[in-house]
Amino acid sequence: MQDELHEFEHNRVWRLLPTPKDASVVGLKWIFRNKMDKEGTVIRNKTRLVVNGYCQEEGIDYEETFTPVARLESVRIFLAYDAHKNFDVFQMDVRCAFLDGELEETVYVEKPPGLMNEKYPDH
Fold it and tell me: Which of 55, 86, 112, 115 has the fewest CB within 10 Å, making it most exposed?
């Protein structure tokens, strides 16, 4: 959890602010998973902080959504083309990735469980 919180701080993902009275605040939760090798031995513990999106209402909390997902057909075409052209394909495991973009709406999320800030305890 501390590594994830450190990445948020390093990338300036959010600012601690007092919650406005009329604001809708979205909850957060931690997801824990174990990454295992072929034999089933745990090689790394993974932690991700996710938004409780089911608490939001379309038209009130957001207008549209976007999920960057590659379809299986696209991956197959990509690999077939690479095989045809005899290209080398490499796989990369990204430890921490952020979609960087400007939001048109102001979004308020609660502090993640485990985040303590002595300077702003109620923000």
Answer: 86
Q: What is the pTM of this model?
A: 0.56
Q: What span, in angstroms and rounded, lies between the C-alpha atoms of 90 and 82? A: 11
Residues 108 and 26 sit within 8 Å (Cβ to Cβ): yes
Long-range interactions of 27-33: CB distance < 8 A, separation 24+: 27/51, 27/52, 27/55, 27/109, 27/110, 28/52, 28/109, 28/110, 28/111, 28/112, 28/113, 29/113, 30/1, 30/112, 30/113, 30/114
